[in-house]
Design a protein that fits this description.
The structure is a single chain. By secondary structure, the protein is mainly alpha-helical. It has five helices and no strands. It has helices at about 5-10, 15, 25-35, 35-55, 65-70. α3 crosses α4.
């Protein structure tokens, strides 16, 4: 696989994890992930981040930085 193809597909990994890609593009990224250690580890990391965000307690106080960013 050409390096430019890897870089192009790597940019689509986040959309793949979020389920935002249509079937043909999703299949191409999935095949790349099966062959690319770097992109497959990125998928794992994004998956862990999503799970962590889903399980954040709503009872926890808001972070100071988030309070400053809120309009």
């Amino acid at each position: 696989m050409m390096p430019w193809t890897h870089h192009r597909l790597r940019r689509q990994v986040s959309a793949y994890v979020d389920g935002e890609l249509e079937l043909p593009a999703s299949a191409v990224v999935e095949r790349h992930i099966a062959q690319c250690w770097g992109c497959s580890s990125t998928v794992e990391q994004f998956g862990l981040i999503k799970v962590s965000l889903l399980h954040l307690s709503r009872d926890r106080p808001e972070a100071v930085g988030a309070a400053h960013l809120r309009p």
